[in-house]
Amino acid sequence: MRRDLLAGVAAAAWFGLAAAPVVPPVAAAFRIPRTLPGLSGVALTFDDGPHRQGTPATLEALRAQRAVATFFLVGEQVERHRTLAAEIVAAGHAIGVHGYRHTLLLRRSPGAVRDDLRRALDVIGSATGTEPSLYRPPYGVFSGPALLHVRRLGWRPLLWSRWGRDWEAGATPEGIAARATRELGSGDVVLLHDADHYSSADSWRRTVAALPLVLEAAAAAELPLVAASQST
Ligand SMILES: [Zn+2]
Questions:
Q1: Among 44, 67, 186, 197, which has the highest number of CB atoms less than 10 A from its own CB?
Q2: How far apart (Å, rounded) are the C-alpha atoms in residues 105 and 112?
Q3: The pLDDT of residue 230 is above 80
């Protein structure tokens, strides 16, 4: 009951403006990592792709700085852009699962969640030739049964400790970069998006424009950018 209540609070908060102070205690209650203490560097993570334009542009910006990142893919988007999903892996980045459909877990039955995750793994695995073991739910909101199932599968749930709020219509590249790199330290996990499938139109363009600033800030702090899967 308590878990469902906490998750409900997080879900309600997500859609308002108060997510930042609410998500950390919920993550702590569920024992869901927001940082990766074993990481020597920072993990940039990109959710919601692949995207026909956003993913290649993101890959190019990362390539320019030889940065490695982790992409949490959505199964229904991988089905549309299988080649792009494979290109992410070919470029040396890590893959995580973000579900098959991008809907809130709390609105789905445990059986429906299991089916969704199985389908996501099938699609993402076959398109990328990888066996992803990192998982992040849509909107960062878990349900109790979903978390149990994810752990049973042996996947590692991962949220984030920094975000650019790059999904917002009013976001600017400078604002995204400033939020994403505020007090950045080793083990931080940064949430960004290479796709606008579930956010404001063209949000990926602002994210891509913010990337050189993000990479610059990490370099200035002498923090290498590494895959989330490199953490033990
Ligand atoms: Zn998402």
A1: 44
A2: 9
A3: no
Strands 43-47 and 134-135: unpaired
Sign of CA dihedral 80, 82, 88, 91: negative
How far apart, in whole angstroms, are the C-alpha atoms of residue 111 and residue 129? 26
13 confidence band (pLDDT: 50, 70, 90)? very low
Q: How far is the CA of 34 from the centre of ligand 1 (A)?
A: 16
Cα dist from 40 to 3, 201, 232, whole Å: 32, 34, 11
Alpha helices in the chain (DSSP H): 2-14, 19-30, 54-64, 75-80, 82-90, 110-128, 144-152, 173-180, 203-220
Q: Taking the model in full, what pTM does it have?
A: 0.90
Where residue 22 falls among pLDDT bands split at 50, 70, 90?
low
Q: What is the pLDDT of residue 5?
A: 45
Listed residues: CB within 5 A of ion ligand 1 = 47-48, 138
55-75 residue pLDDT tens: 999 999 999 889 999 999 999
CA of 151 to the centre of ligand 1 (A): 20
Q: What would the two tokens of residue 146 be?
A: 């979903």
